[in-house]
């Protein structure tokens, strides 16, 4: 690949990462997860076209932050105490989503938690389980976590 083609590919990847993370931050803000209007957000790790992991904190709170996952998968968040690295955060989301998928697939649990009846829960559970398994494969593969050569 020529340097110019590589530069174009890098620019496309960087744009996808930035736009995906901006959407993810906006989504958790609209859900009311963050209390303030002013937030600081930074991408911590990304696999372009698949997943972005980043940290979001409210500007008045320099002590804690949220891990946010987004990209070509559901947007979710967890407190900073759940993980110390992006890899650990991705592992957390993978395991959480596997658990969520099992609950969605269980009609008794859906009824117990009064989940909507107009949702295809079995299909959603299967898709979430596949996504969680794919994330775990990424977590488990050291090649994704090596620092680039300088």
Description:
The longest helix has 28 residues, at 3-30. This protein is 49% helix and 18% strand. The protein is globular, with a radius of gyration of 17 Å. It has a four-stranded antiparallel β-sheet with strand order 1-2-3-4. By secondary structure, it is an alpha+beta fold.
How would you briefly describe this protein structure?
The chain is α+β, with helices and mostly antiparallel strands and 150 residues long. It has helices spanning 3-30, 86-104, 107-112, 121-140, and strands at residues 39-47, 51-58, 66-71, 76-79.
**Helical coverage, percent range:** 40-55%
Based on CA atoms alone, the radius of gyration comes out at 17 Å
Uncertain runs: none
Kindly estimate the percentage of residues that lie in beta strands according to DSSP.
Answer: 15-25%
Number of helices: 4
Classification by helices and strands: alpha+beta
